[in-house]
Amino acid sequence: MASDWDDILAGGPLTQTEEIANDRIRGQALLAQFNASPSGDHLLRQRLCGELFGHCPDSCWISTPFTCEFGRNIHIGEKTFFNFNVTILDVGEVHIGNNVLLAPNVQIYTATHSLNHLERRNWTAYNKPVRIGDDCWIGGGAIICPGVTIGPRTIIGAGAVVTRDIPADSLAVGNPAKVIRTLSPDEPRDPEAMQ
After folding, report:
1. Quick check: is 79 in a domain?
2. For a surface tag, which of 5, 35, 137, 145 has the fewest beta carbons within 10 Å of its beta carbon?
3. How distant, in Å, are the alpha carbons of 27, 90, 121, 157, 190 from that of 70?
4. Which of 19-23, 24-28, 109-113, 188-192 is predicted least confidently?
5. Residue tagged active-site, from 55, 75, 95, 113
6. Quick one: which H or E segment has residue 34?
7. What are the distances in angstroms from CA 145 to CA 26, 97, 136, 156, 193?
8. Number of folded domains in the chain?
9. Which SMART domains match (predicted)?
């Protein structure tokens, strides 16, 4: 049986059906429980993450507070770390790879709206999925806009606004984010040496 999500994730409008409303209520209830859970209660937090997200292995760490809309459309790889105040607007799918570091206040958006002001009056939203490859580091306060793919092993500088795809093995900074250099496997360990 088809789900209302099938059309939405295929690029159709986010419609306020009973299924969507129930998924939002469910996601927000789980999110409230997760944000209120003690950081030392790993079993409880793992269970809540398992219920909230589309995929979240036990090897991940999600710091609280954390914010999302549904949770169900977020897929997280192994050994990925979210620092404080990460926000993911998951009207569409968000795929985050293995060994990814998200610094405080990172924002990931999949929701977008029509350029037509009359359509926006109805709050009609669409989605463009976001993908972040393995071994990426997303700096504090960075914003990842709808439809962006970030290649593996890439670093996004603090405060960057990523409006277009960023290739693998890149260091991208600024607003809008631009690649300022290509990274190699033998980069120095000292972050200051990368400036």
Report:
1. yes
2. 35
3. 5, 6, 22, 27, 38
4. 188-192
5. 113
6. helix 18-36
7. 25, 17, 16, 13, 29
8. 1
9. Mac (SM01266)
Instruction: Write down the pLDDT at residue 189.
Output: 65
How far, in Å, CA of 119 to CA of 13, rounded?
11
**DSSP code at position 166:** B
Domain for residue 195, yes or no? no
Does 193 score more than 60 pLDDT?
A: no
160 and 143 Cβ atoms separated by less than 8 Å: yes
User: What is the predicted pLDDT for the residue at 191?
Assistant: 60
What is the span of the domain harbouring residue 172? 4-181
Amino acid found at 188:
P
Residue 186 within a domain = no
Structural domain includes residue 157: yes
Task: Specify the CATH number for the domain of residue 37.
Answer: 2.160.10.10
| 117 part of the active site | no
Q: Give percent of the chain above pLDDT 70.
A: 95
The Cα diameter of the chain in Å comes to 55
Give the chain's mean pLDDT: 93
192, exposed or middle or buried, with CB in 10 Å at 0-12, 13-18, 19+?
A: exposed
CB count, 10 Å around CB of 186? 5
pLDDT, one tens digit per residue, over 90-110 is 999 999 999 999 999 999 999
Model-level pTM?
0.92
Q: What is the rounded radius of gyration, in angstroms, for the C-alpha atoms of the chain?
A: 17
